[in-house]
Specification:
The protein has strands at residues 12-16, 21-24, 48-51, 56-60. It is 0% helix and 23% strand. It contains no helices and 4 strands. The two termini are 21 Å apart. The mean pLDDT is 96. The protein has one domain (1-78). The chain is globular and about 35 Å long. By secondary structure, the protein is mostly beta strands. The strands form 2 sheets. The chain has a two-stranded antiparallel ribbon. A two-stranded antiparallel sheet has the order 2-3.
Amino acid sequence: MSDAVSPQNAPYAVECEAGKTYFWCACGKSTNQPFCDGSHKGTEFTPVAFKAEDSKKMYFCGCKKTENVPLCDGSHNR
């Protein structure tokens, strides 16, 4: 498996809406970071669905190295 592109070395802060599903870009090539725009087509990557349980600010991984997909776990600091 190839490595994802790291578009930024920090999380993306997103105001999420309860009940809404977001599709996190796993490949790092989307121009709509942190969300998928279909740039993964032809690769082994697929977007990750995330359904917000509450309306609040969430921090989506920007380095694409998190172990808590799709949310930031601080991996960009290591």
